[in-house]
Amino acid sequence: MAIVFQKPHALTDKPFHYCPGCTHGIIHRLVAEVLDELGIEGTTVGVASVGCTYNSYDYFNCDMVQAAHGRAPAVATGLRRSLPDRQVFTYQGDGDLAAIGTAEIVHAATRGEKITTIFVNNAIYGMTSGQMAPTTLIGQVTTTTPFGRKPELHGYPIRVCEMLSTLEGAAYVERVAVNNVVNVRKAKAAIKKAFKVQMAGLGFSIVEVLSICPTNWGMSPQKSLEWLEQNMMEHYPLGNYKGKDLEV
Amino acid sequence: MGERLLMKGNEVIAEAALRAGCRHYFGYPITPQTEVAHYMAKKMEQLGGTFVQAESEVAAINMVYGAASAGVRAMTSSSSPGISLKQEGISYSAGSELPMVIIDIVRCGPGLGGILPAQCDYFQMVKGGGHGDYHLPVLAPCSVQEMYELVVEAFNIADKYRNPVVVMGDGYLGQMMEAVTFRDEEPIYKADKSTWAAYGSELKRPHHTITSIYIEADVLEAHVQKLQRKYAEITANETRVEEFNCEGADIIITAYGTISRIVKNVIKDAAKEGIKVGLIRPITLWPFPSASFAKYADKCKRFLCVEMSTGQMLEDVKLAVNGRNEVEFYGRTGGNVPSQSEILEQVRRIAAEN
Asked: What would be the CATH architecture of the domain defined by B244-353?
């Protein structure tokens, strides 16, 4: 009997601990499928960060290094500079990458480090129970913006892809979403291209994935997807921000 | 005997690391250690190694964390305020059991303090600095020659025990020029890192994970206890001390780094006045050479601890003496150094009072 669907080899058998409806599972799977399809699981080292995915090292079958909060791009720099013939990726959330780790991601990008960053943006801190993230939208209620995010009190949400795409060292920058089948397929294509850009030695690559957090948004998964489509996509337009025409 | 050169302490640090096989250096400029980075920037490019001037001390130590995870010999260097920033990464590195060498060329603090030499980082390097139950071997050279030897040794200890190792010198040791004799070949401890490092599995083994997080209490406790057993082994095997003139001494001075050299002159001066003075010079500040103090605690009349701080090593000396004798203290700080005559004056006073 032909196998038509199975778990990617680059994922372990360990069950995900993520909340019901969380899209981390989909994104993990996409990364693993790409590692499988490019045949690079055995030559890749991943960097887990701090947040809900702190132990993604239990889920990915490649070698993994767990980094301090926000420091994954620096750790990945050390890894990649020591392993010139390997691939290195970081898997980071919005608090990790766009708040405490802003310096690390900006400088890894501007140095053109040959690493790939999977940046999961769900506009909230998940693991610490729903605080305002740097990507939290104006008006969005969180546990630290109980009356909604107000620009005069909390500033404005950061658009990471737009910011990083201004840097010469960033070769490939794309924003995707995993809200429906079409976008999931586009997300996978972007992740694959990002790894190929790294393998071609072209520089830093990042894929921002708009994601949902039903638990901390206080919505059903279905409602969360609608909220993402109606609110996040407006502030964070999907598409390529750099490296669209790179042939890899 | 190998090459003999006149070199600056900071350059010797870099040269020693290169001779020890380190090809991955990550740093951030800060006085008074920046020459380490200058030397590394030049040599790494020539040797095909890695030199990265990081965006911050925080990033630099995390780059070392990544390189050490990959299984290569890696180092960073900094000075006091920069080391404060590195402490997060140092704690993670201790927790993840990553071999690396961290150089601290100490300047005076607190805060931005000043750029002049001091020994007031004893607490932050020896007592932890970062969070959690961990220890780092801290090696304290007193000359440029010893700086060279201890930097090589630091890489060996780091690899042998899978632990970060610190070489700590006061600013003088980084800035002074002295003759240094290099060995033709370095004694390199060969560690098999293939059993744990994250360098790509080639699908030939289960994947490796480098981590310091253990969510379950019993699992974390077991990990911390494992570290403690390692620290006990390091204490048993790696404690280093110089005892000078201690047999029959009435006063034993204890000092490390630059001060210990001044104390040796004080010992000569005091001998001319008929005062018998010895020196216990800890070479490892952790593990602390407590046994040397215990040995003389009932034999000498007094201990005198001299530091370029307001009394940090003093606490460990008192613990080692354990109430069996009095420990007096003399220190200068702010970039000032206890002079030969100032220390001799203390010796005369103690001799007269006892």
From this structure: 3-Layer(aba) Sandwich (3.40)
Angstrom distance (rounded) from CA A54 to CA A17: 11
Q: Which residues of B touch A55 (CB under 8 A)?
A: 211, 213, 215
Cα B150 to Cα B148: distance, rounded to the nearest angstrom: 6
Q: What pTM does this model have?
A: 0.98
- Domain covering A24-242 assigned CATH 3.10.20.30 in the classification: no
Contact indicator for B261, B117 with CB cutoff of 8 Å = no
CB atoms within 10 A of CB A95: 27
User: Residue B5 in 3-state DSSP?
Assistant: strand
B70 with A83: Cβ contact below 8 A: yes
Cβ contact A68–B89 (<8 Å): yes
Pair of tokens at residue A140: 């969005």
Q: What is the mean pLDDT of residues A115-143?
A: 97
Chain A contact set for B68 (CB, 8 A): 78
How many Å apart are CA B258 and CA B331, to the nearest integer? 13
- Could you tell me the sign of the dihedral formed by the alpha carbons of B232, B233, B238, B242, in that order? positive
* B251-254 sheet: strands from edge to edge: B241-244, B277-282, B251-254, B302-307, B327-331
Residues B245-259: pLDDT tens digits?
A: 999 999 999 999 999
Q: What is the pLDDT of residues B251-288, one digit of tens each?
A: 999 999 999 999 999 999 999 999 999 999 999 999 99
What gap in Å lies between CA B67 and CA B152, rounded to an integer? 18
Q: Which candidate, B9, B129, B21, B134, places its Cα nearest to that of B77?
A: B9
Q: Which among B16, B20, B28 is positioned nearest to B52, based on CA atoms?
A: B28
Q: Which residue of A has its CA nearest to B62?
A: A75
Q: β-strands A87-93, B241-244: how paired?
A: unpaired
Query: Which CATH number is B4-238's, of 3.40.50.970, 3.40.50.1580, 3.40.50.410, 3.40.250.10?
Result: 3.40.50.970
Of A43, A74, A79, Cβ closest to residue B70: A79
**ipTM of model over 0.90:** yes
